[in-house]
Amino acid sequence: MHNNIEMIQVASSNIESIGYDETEEIIKVKFLNGNEYIYMNVSNPTVFEELVSAVSVGAYFNRNIKGVYPYEKI
Question: How confident is the model at residue 4 (pLDDT cuts 50, 70, 90)?
Answer without folding.
Answer: confident
